[in-house]
């Protein structure tokens, strides 16, 4: 088994810590938010003897890939361990967490506690490089056939709805701004109740653009599933090919942005989403160039009246 520096740090816990409490530990919400809970290796070691053979695979994988796990989805961990998603969830619950996201959050806290802070002269470069890398990686992942099909679907529809929650909703608003300027009928819905309500009036002419970094946001997946049942076409913008969202999607446009659970909603993730949206909007504009140009001129004239 390969142990990195972080693993060695985590294993600095003492036997006394392991035996601090009897019975299975449970990490409360307050402990999770404050980080005031035993080290993860303490929690894992206490339950090690209870792990099934499949759960032991998850245990070994986590020990060997501490730094990578915080950027991976539940589905990715299951595939890497050659187990089911339910096995990963059982592993997380056995060591005291409600689920995989809580486990990742705790892991991110511990990694942050042992990483040195960036110096003032380096953090600017780090932010810049992360954004550039996100765009370059997203470009490499872009499937031109998927992109062109998505462009054609949106360009030919008069009922375009974007679903996004929190930071993903911000990216959706940018798409709305771009497409309204060229005369497309588009709405953005960021409220989960409004999303499912809107699906009731959808049909085979409706297009849903679902934006979710993880592809595992339950409210988005539920709304998309309802939309599919009404005959709508779904375009997913997500980081993960194998996710609950992609199961209900006709087209999948992949982004590439590593996001630490402690930095959820960071600009890096939005930059990769905005890059895909820019590709879509540029392609749609080219698809309907004359009409788009005329509408943009009219919009520019109306907007100019808002300026002094």
Automatic annotation (TrEMBL):
One of its GO terms (biological process) is carbohydrate derivative metabolic process. Pfam families: HTH_6, SIS. Keywords: DNA-binding, Transcription, Transcription regulation. Residues 38-114 form the HTH rpiR-type domain. The keyword DNA-binding applies. PROSITE patterns: HTH_RPIR, SIS. Residues 150-290 form the SIS domain. GO terms for molecular function: carbohydrate derivative binding; DNA binding; DNA-binding transcription factor activity. PANTHER family: GLUCOKINASE, HTH-TYPE TRANSCRIPTIONAL REGULATOR HEXR-RELATED. This is Putative HTH-type transcriptional regulator YbbH. The gene is ybbH_1.
